[in-house]
Amino acid sequence: MTRLVMNQDGMAPWRIVRGTLCLLVAVFLLAPLFVVVIISFSSAPFLQFPPPGLSLRWYVQLFSTPAWINALVVSVEMMVPAALLATIMGTAAAYALVRGRIPGARLVMACLMLPIIVPGMITAAALFGIYRGLGLNGTLTGLVIGHTVLNLPYVLATVSSALRVQDSRLEQAASTLGAPPWATFRRITLPLILPAVLSSLLVAMILSFDELIVSLFVSSARVRPVAVQMWSNVMGDFDPTIAAIASVCFLFALLVLVADLALRRGPRLT
User: Fold this and answer.
1) Model pLDDT for residues 196-212, shown as the tens digit of each residue
2) What are the domain boundaries of the chain?
3) Do residues 61 and 234 make contact, with C-beta atoms less than 8 angstroms apart?
């Protein structure tokens, strides 16, 4: 007992150092984001920190400019179906590869994970070449398909990990009692992996909303998501409106992160 108390006392300084380092890293990573948020409320006609005054003029300009409104609408119309498709297809693929007896399952898994490994520029150029023959360049359908391909590996990795952790004997017991495969999946497997599935959906939404390279290759002047509009604005003569839209993107990512944490801490079926 005395030795245990001494070990705990010896670990106390290390915990303080570790906590301090983590706090410093968090401040280092988040400080630029907070600077951008502060600049978005600046009254100056150009990017300036600290701002000479506070104003909402850049948010007013953001939500009153047709180009930015169209970009936000396109991003939402692209993000939602792409995230849903990636989640459904990734969950189905993960279940088949982890629970099924598919020959060459590891090879199939590696092929599905290629969009993470292959540089985004190569994926974007490949999609551009395929879309040119199909007439999908500059269309919302092309953006949805491209973002689904990019988001699928993240869903596959997350759901596969959740399936490997869960006890497969629960599903076998349900099958032994006469439950058909779909009923077993719906009543046993899906409730167990639901937090991972919903977390994958939220991550896919963030990735789709922030994706630039593929969107840059397959978008057009009329079908242009927020990331491409931000790139176009930065390459030209930009004003603090770019800080306003960056703050909106940061707020969206923050809300999704909070929702993801809430899902991970929610009740689980055991």
Assistant:
1) 888 888 888 888 888 88
2) 2-40, 58-265
3) no
